[in-house]
Amino acid sequence: MPTAAARKSWQRGAGFLGSRHAILGGAMSWLSEHNLVAAISEAGGFGVVASGSMPPEALRREIALTREMTRQPFGVNLITLNPELMALVRVVVEEKVSHCVLAGGLPDQATIDALKEGGVKVILFAPSPALAKRLVRRGADALVIEGHEAGGHVGPVATAVLVQEILHQVEEVPVFVAGGIANGRMVAAMADLGACGCQVGTLFVCTHECVAHANFKQAFIRAQSRDAVVTVQFDPSLPVIPVRALANKGTEAYNRLQLELVRQVKEKVKSREEAQLELERFWVGALRRAAIEGDVEFGSVMAGQSVGLVRSERSVMAVMNDLVRDMI
Ligand SMILES: Cc1cc2nc3c(=O)[nH]c(=O)nc-3n(C[C@H](O)[C@H](O)[C@H](O)COP(=O)(O)O)c2cc1C
Which domains are assigned to the chain? Predict the structure, then answer.
């Protein structure tokens, strides 16, 4: 039975999202398209379309397709590194999407302002206590704190530490917790600690509604928690955001590319920004290769440590019911 305080936080989160449950389906590039997003929203959660490297008109189409499948609220995730970011922001505003999650680095003020002026609620990732406060001052309507356990691009600090560092310091806006959350007892514990809700990615990959290739889902089902490892940065001349994925030949290819790009940056063949963009493009392609084409040996099988808790493919509704069982 949740405490009164937990119930209050949970209701604040659900009220902010406009959904029955305060569970965001973490946007996953290539996978969080209309089928998965609509299924999460239909199950009472809050689905989020991953725009990844989509051009603006593709995003507009995804929004329309999602609306054909659900009348429940859902959001859009934009990557700030996308060279077409402002055009994507315009699509989000024109299509009257209610919430936008900005990921992939600190968004500039113009991006936040354009969304807010368009009536869109802005959700931002807060990697540290100081930045959390700054993001609230800059207009964040809600924050996500995402621990090192998560899949995909990750920060350096564990969920349990971020909860203590940030959750209790930010009262102004709802704070959602992500990274390693994979069952209802964990969700209830987070609400008890004051989280307004949770964001979950890895757990939604092995669902019937997710378009991931069967090989990708099988790799998740077979993996242990310890198999989802983080890449390292080889040299300070080329700062990179670590990525958590199942270790395979794709990870080795990334390491080789990073080493080569470090050399090119040092020899001034490429600028740091060009090299960083090339590495991000590598991930976009490698994830597609594994998640959509099924090449789980050479592609990137991005997964959080909670992959060890994924044991079968189920419906989104079954996964959602497990997550919310102690909160309803
Ligand atoms: C395959 C995969 C792709 C992801 N792609 C994105 C993305 O495009 N944008 C983003 O903000 N987060 C992305 N994430 C992170 C998720 O949105 C979510 O925050 C994370 O999965 C939560 O932690 P968990 O994996 O422990 O559940 C991705 C995660 C995975 C596993």
Answer: 4-211+310-324 (3.20.20.70), 214-307 (no CATH)
The per-residue pLDDT for range 299-327, each reduced to its tens digit, is 999 999 999 999 999 999 999 999 999 88
Nearest protein Cα to ligand 1, atom 10: 27
pTM comes to 0.97
- Please choose, from the candidates 89, 71, 203, 101, the residue with its C-alpha nearest in 3D space to the C-alpha of residue 150: 203
Q: Does position 1 have pLDDT exceeding 90, yes or no?
A: no
What are the CA-CA distances from residue 275 to residues 83, 152, 249, 259, 325 (Å)?
15, 19, 21, 11, 45
Residue with tokens 């997710």: 210
Ligand 1 contact via 103 beta carbon (within 6 Å) = yes
Q: Using a 6 Å cutoff on CB, does residue 246 contact ligand 1?
A: no
Give residue for tokens 């089928």: 35
- Is the beta carbon of 299 within 6 A of some atom in ligand 1? no
177 lines ligand 1 (CB under 6 A): no
CA-proximal residue: ligand 1, atom 19 (nearest): 26
Q: Which atom of ligand 1 is nearest to the CA of 147?
A: 23
